[in-house]
Amino acid sequence: MSGIAEVMFNLGYSVQGSDNASNAQTQRLEALGVKIFKGHCEQNVTNAFVVIVSSAVSKDNLEVQQAKLLGVPVIQRAQMLSELMRLKHSIAISGTHGKTTTTSLIAQLLETGNFDPTVVNGGIINTYKSNAKKGTGAWIVVEADESDGSFTNLFPTICIVTNIDMEHVDHYASYEDLVFAYNQFIHNLPFYGTAILCIDHPMVYELAKTIKDRRIITYGFHEEAMVRAINVRPEVDGVVFDVHINYEEHRFIGKSENIIPFSKHLSNLKLPMLGLHNVQNALSLVAVAQELHITDIVIKEALTSFEGVKRRFTVVGKVEGITVIDDYAHHPAEVQTVIASAKQASPEGRVFAVVQPHRYSRLKFLMDEFAECFNGSDQIFVCPVYAAGEHPLEGINHETLCQKVRQNYALPVNTALSADDLFLKLEGQLKSGDIVLMMGAGDITHWAAQLFTKLESSFCDSTIRTAAVHS
Predict the structure, then answer these.
(1) Active-site residue among 63, 143, 146, 334?
(2) What is the pTM of this model?
(3) In CATH, what number is assigned to the domain containing residue 254?
(4) 38 included as an active-site residue
(5) 86-103: buried (b, 16+ CB within 10 Å) or exposed (e) per residue?
(6) Which of 245, 274, 304 is the last residue of a domain?
(7) Does the annotation mark 456 as catalytic?
(8) How confident is the model at residue 57 (pLDDT cuts 50, 70, 90)?
(9) Which of 26, 96, 100, 157 is catalytic?
(10) Number of domains in the chain
(11) Which domain holds residue 56?
């Protein structure tokens, strides 16, 4: 929402918004000159031409009801995003995991190639220090949020699907419903458009085989991928890999006049991010580069200079060799991936995994998966559920998850009720090389900052006491 607001404001529209509490996004918008109301009331929409709502806003919201009473159109976020996309050629990125990082990578590619894109992302791009940017070029890059199904309102020139896992059970009744939505998203492409699909994920692989009337480019580690990563060499600060591109006959589309056969090899691409999942994300950049005829030199420069995304394996700080990491991971697959990245970052160190479940409905549906997603951890902490507006569900809470995790792991598994509680349980056992992973989509990002401050203060006090003893 804040990204759309920023772009529209920079386009010259009068923009205002309402939120229950001030946060980094509302503060950034206020600094630009956008009027932000704290809380919701009828008067806020008196002069509105249109009211745009996120999926978190209910139909009985005061402003929504007042807008309808006044005859003011009330539309979803994706509907306004679709209008912005009509002005330019567009690239829309969707998938259960990796959307935000992939969107940021594609934006970086177009920036490096001097396309000056407009960008609307779901997370803060470190290069921009914002989740949005108004460019003067002919392309717009957007994150397509599948959570409420509204991404089917988008009609991109190029679409990317990173993966498909069962999520957002409050909206999709079944896995089939979710896949159907992605199928519609792909078929929203014009006849001259391209779907770029990661076939490492089984459901995307199966979906790709059903697409007969749209041009598709596949990517991944899969041996059948048209843009394929090989010879991956993990490093402490990132990963180096090669890419083999082969647009020859393949099982998904056979021979096609829409695919011009060619092949080439890119060597020693360096991405300053950890994890094989980020290699997959980077492959989508390579695929887009082929579509836009962007040179290999620009590809390498875009990857090397990528500064990442806020809350995607973000280093909060380091003290005495101990690293605190803040990450948005809130799905079991994401948690497991982030833990693997932490082990890559510090092979000899220990990983203290701290997870804050997000939404009771998600925890209920994925309880068994959450209980098995901590492979590679040395100690596990489960925080209270971040409700995100949901009402509690009987028997679904952090204690329940903690008990189930204990059944699967012969490791210390404890609850952490606050940043203070976590600090007290960690104090005295952390040592150089250890990583504390703070994971979740709620307010655990604030816990991460508080924990690091406490660790810093603790070691500082210890140093002072030691100096006093020796003096």
Answers:
(1) 143
(2) 0.84
(3) 3.40.1190.10
(4) no
(5) eebbbbbbbbbbbbbbbb
(6) 304
(7) no
(8) confident
(9) 100
(10) 3
(11) 2-72
